[in-house]
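Usage

Read records sequentially. Each one opens with the input sequence:
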Amino acid sequence: MVSDFRKKKYLDIFAHFDTDSNGKIEKKDFETMAETIAKSPDGTINEVKHKEYLNALLAIWSGLQQADANKDGHVSADEWVAQWDAYAKNPAAPQEWQKVYCKFIFQLLDTGNDGSIDNEEFVKAYESWGFKKDDAVKTFGKLSQGKSTLSWAEFQKLWQEYFTSEDANALGNLLFSSPSP
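and closes with the structure output:
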């Protein structure tokens, strides 16, 4: 049984995917998300990025459909939690969609496409996701443990920690949340 601590983390991510806040994740949520993250600050959509994001997000959706245990065409919060709980029990064998999701987020953050995430990239992305700049700077400093970048290998470790750890102080918990004041 999934702990309340991990369940809360899973549901926090679920809420981001549920773009229309209807309590379920559907294909249209992924389409909306692709459009949202492809928008520039002036509101125009970068068509090249939109296509790239849409392809990646639809690949995640395609794999995630296996979580739809009752085959009703969407993934409920309970089904979402069950998928991540199964991952936490065997993180060495993630489902393909979970690997694609991890890589997608890394590539979204690595805007320089150099195989690492630096402070500027991290802060810019997190600000666009609604974080305060100071919180994003603080979060990156903690995640990178004072280094100037986060590598793909480091990111994967933090990712795994977020989805599996029961330790409230684990650094991976900061991937999708602000640091404590």
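Summary fields computed downstream for this record:
- The chain is about 55% helix and 5% strand.
- The chain has a mean pLDDT of 93.
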